[in-house]
Amino acid sequence: QICLSLVKLLFYLAHSPLGSIVLLDFQPRQFVMVDGNLKVTDMDDASTEELSCKEDNDCTLDFPTKSFPLKCSAAGKCEGMNEKKNLFNAYRYFFTYLLPHSAPPALQPYLIDILNATGDLRYGINETLEAFEKILHLYKSGLYLQKRPLFLKDYTSLKGFRVTDGEDYKCWPSYSHLGCLLSVHSAEEAAAICNSQSQCQSFIITQQMTWTGRPLASFHGSLTDLIPDANAVIYIKQSASSGDGL
């Protein structure tokens, strides 16, 4: 969410009515999340000036660990320097820390492609936004789950019950520090996640939604504390339910 919002912001800056705007003091502390959207808190160090040049050799974009040669346009300006400077800063301050770690395994190769392409500045802001929106579509639609084994058939659904609130086994990246609360596309994906975790005996699809409209599923390792809840459905591993006499 943070990275996509940042890319949308940089897309606007690259195509603003004032021209391509560069953020000269590009640091995480210069941004804040407001209602799920990333905003710049300080525009004092923004500029629309593109570096002047006479030849391509005048257009080297330098960073502490990398340098990129750019073209000198017929108008005597380094082509795309503001856009590329913003994009590489987004890569080194945001993408490298946030992108690789919490996506479903099927989507991670797409994110690695974005990392590699922005880290080498092979993508401009247009291509980067297009790549992010493709991944978001795959994520929200569940298309990344195609051609996977089906596990839900190995679970028994018990309507009208849920597990009592409290600490349970923990997983990563969980939305709750007290237990294992993960975003899923469907009960089928939740069953696959439960199967991949040795502690998991059951799960519940909660009423909570993420910013993408996906529900949160709560995974549990204990079946001893079931309580009535007319709105809940708990999915229990058949091996666990037979062992506990449910």
CATH class of the largest domain: Mainly Alpha
CATH topology category name of the largest domain: Transferase(Phosphotransferase), domain 1
What pattern of helices and strands is seen along the backbone? HEEEEEEHHHEEHEEEH
* Structural class by SSE content: alpha+beta
User: Total domains, how many?
Assistant: 2
Q: Radius of gyration in whole Å, from Cα?
A: 24 Å
Describe the structure.
The chain has helices spanning 2-14, 81-98, 108-119, 125-141, 187-196, 238-243, and strands at residues 22-23, 31-34, 37-40, 46-47, 60-62, 67-69, 155-163, 180-183, 202-209, 215-220, 226-237. It is α+β, with helices and mostly antiparallel strands and 246 residues long. It folds into 2 domains: 1-144, Transferase(Phosphotransferase), domain 1; 152-237, Hepatocyte Growth Factor (3-Layer(bba) Sandwich), CATH 3.50.4. The strands form 4 sheets. It has a 5-stranded antiparallel beta sheet. Strands 1-4 form a two-stranded antiparallel ribbon. It is elongated. 26% of the residues are buried. The mean pLDDT is 90.
Task: Give the arrangement of secondary structure elements.
Layout: H1 2-14, E1 22-23, E2 31-34, E3 37-40, E4 46-47, E5 60-62, E6 67-69, H2 81-98, H3 108-119, H4 125-141, E7 155-163, E8 180-183, H5 187-196, E9 202-209, E10 215-220, E11 226-237, H6 238-243
Antiparallel strand pairs: 1-4, 2-3, 5-6, 7-11, 8-10, 9-10, 9-11
Helix pairs in contact: 1-2, 1-4, 3-4
